[in-house]
Amino acid sequence: MLFPPSFGAPTSDDYAIAVIIPPEIPPAALRLELDAHALANNWRALDRLSGVASAGAAVKADAYGLGAAQAAPLLRDAGCRDFFVAHWSEAAALLPYIDGAAIAVLHGPLNAGDAAFAKAIGARPVINSLHQARLWLDAGGGRCDLMVDTGINRLGLPLSELGDEAVQALDIDVLLSHLASAEEDSPLNPRQRGLWGDARRRVAHRRGSLANSAGIALGATYHGELTRPGLALYGGIPCAAMDGKIQQVVVLKAAIMQVRDLSAGDGVGYNSTFIAEGPMRAGVIALGYADGYLRGWSSKGTMLSNGRRLPVLGRVSMDMTVIDLSAAPELAEGDWVEVEYTLPIAAAASGLSQYELLTLLGDRFGR
Ligand SMILES: *Cc1c(COP(=O)(O)O)cnc(C)c1O
């Protein structure tokens, strides 16, 4: 009882005491299915394409949005022994899932705390500057990687600083550089390869690494001893040479929450940007731009049901999207549809990159 019958101070009898047992959370109305075989097959294909080099795996940004906790053990079981993340927090999160395989942190140590953390968890920092080289040595040094800049002018030690005593004092496992235009037939590729080769002759290291996914397709002279695919592991096709060798990994599905009959003249969604020309059935699905299905898919995206195409009607909203059920009249509330999200096709249709299409998927998907 909220108000005791007497106006005196409430006693414990005046209140019902509820023990709250958290109920099981019901399954999400949208799902991101990760095809474990496709992911493992893609790693093996990229490892084969890497020739005598081994393929590592870029699992930064939560394995490009797919979930590093799910993806990393599958990659590890397929044979991957070198994992790359960007942030120290990502390295910590990855530790339980890779069973002793190596982690390299691409951003490197920004301060003494990062360096101490690297030592504590046994991850290799990727040293990107003289500042980082000195920080690492001041923390006691130990095995690390070195990223040299050969023309992308992003993160990486300028080649002019390779002779510095702090750099020469490093215990370098992997000497990395990163290609700016690997997915294009660009003169920058052989130029960067040449500069990376020069760097390899000027500083002691165990393994060399230059190629991302697209770089693997450039051939053996780009491979060194370790390649660093990311996108292609997750089903992205960065260049024509990988078409047919890489399988789609992500399948997105959403539940139909409501079905409605439209009449001629009915508008759908915000601002009625779709108007029915005649009687038709529409379904409302639990997927919206907050989940990464951006507004650019308004009147443009497609859902699939047994190969039948169900176009998006009108605007995508934050939490829902309306689709045309004309081609699948039997679909009812509670049924599921698949989102057309084949990466190269979705990229061409949306104007987004395959990288963005993966990494923007939100955390409301059941995974
Ligand atoms: C992200 C990243 C990769 C992976 O690149 P993909 O194009 O996704 O294969 C490799 N190396 C570095 C340094 C990266 O930042």
Question: Over the alpha carbons, how many angstroms does the gyration radius reach?
Answer: 26 Å
Please state the overall shape, judged from the principal axes of the Cα atoms: elongated
Q: Architecture of the largest domain in CATH?
A: Alpha-Beta Barrel
Distance between the termini: 42 Å
Q: How many structural domains can be distinguished in the coordinates? A: 2
Indicate the mean pLDDT: 95
What structural category characterises the helix and strand content?
alpha/beta
Cofactors, ions, other ligands: pyridoxal-5'-phosphate
Description of the molecule:
Strand 4, helix 4 (88-94) and strand 5 form a beta-alpha-beta unit. The protein has 2 domains: 36-235, Alanine racemase (TIM Barrel, Alpha-Beta Barrel); 250-267 and 275-359, Lyase, Ornithine Decarboxylase, Chain A, domain 1. It is of the alpha/beta class and 367 residues long. The protein has 11 helices and 19 strands. It has helices at 36-49, 60-64, 68-78, 88-94, 112-121, 130-138, 165-168, 188-202, 213-216, 343-350, 354-359; strands at residues 30-34, 54-55, 57-58, 82-85, 102-105, 124-127, 143-149, 157-158, 171-176, 207-209, 226-227, 250-262, 267-268, 274-275, 280-285, 302-305, 308-313, 321-324, 336-339. Helix 1 (36-49) packs across helix 3 (68-78). The radius of gyration is 26 Å and the shape is elongated. The strands form 4 sheets. Strands 3, 4, 5, 6, 7, 8, 9 and 10 form an 8-stranded parallel beta sheet that branches. The protein has a 6-stranded antiparallel β-barrel with strand order 12-15-18-17-16-19. The structure holds pyridoxal-5'-phosphate. Pyridoxal-5'-phosphate binds at residues 58, 60, 106, 178, 212-213, 228-231. Pyridoxal-5'-phosphate is lined by residues 58, 60, 106, 178, 212-213, 228-231.
